Amino acid sequence: SAVISQKPSRDICQRGTSLTIQCQVDSQVTMMFWYRQQPGQSLTLIATANQGSEATYESGFVIDKFPISRPNLTFSTLTVSNMSPEDSSIYLCSVEPSGGAYYGYTFGSGTRLTVV
Amino acid sequence: LAKTTQPISMDSYEGQEVNITCSHNNIATNDYITWYQQFPSQGPRFIIQGYKTKVTNEVASLFIPADRKSSTLSLPRVSLSDTAVYYCLVGDRTSGSARQLTFGSGTQLTVLP
Question: Per-residue pLDDT for B1 more than 70?
Answer without folding.
Answer: no
